[in-house]
Amino acid sequence: MGKPGASTPRIDPTADGRRGIRHVFVRDLELCCLIGVHSHERDRRQRVRINLDLAVEEGSEPIGDDLAHVVSYEDILDRARAIAGAGHINLVETLAERIAETCLEDTRVCSARIRVEKLDVFDDTESVGVEIERFNTLDRA
To answer: The pTM is what?
Structure first.
């Protein structure tokens, strides 16, 4: 997982058929989880919205209409749900990092952009949260 000051991967995560990069995404996954640093947030589930965008290396072989040859968004959803449901998390940053980490376990994933928003924190905002981008540190040259 990428850390501040870590070297930038050699692959540009922009979707580009010539370089064999596709994007797998999840939009507006809404979950209820225990999240927050305040005492009243420890025993009351809150709604969060999660968006994911993964830059995925396609590889040289055709996918052949076979799920085993692609990064499955269903698997990504299952992992994100499990992380959010695993117990109390203090920070939206922590939730985003955990989701990014699990996405990057698949070596085909070059980068993961994760947005986590708390939806019911302030009456005068739609949401508050964080967006991170992490890179797979494998040498892809």
So the answer is: 0.84
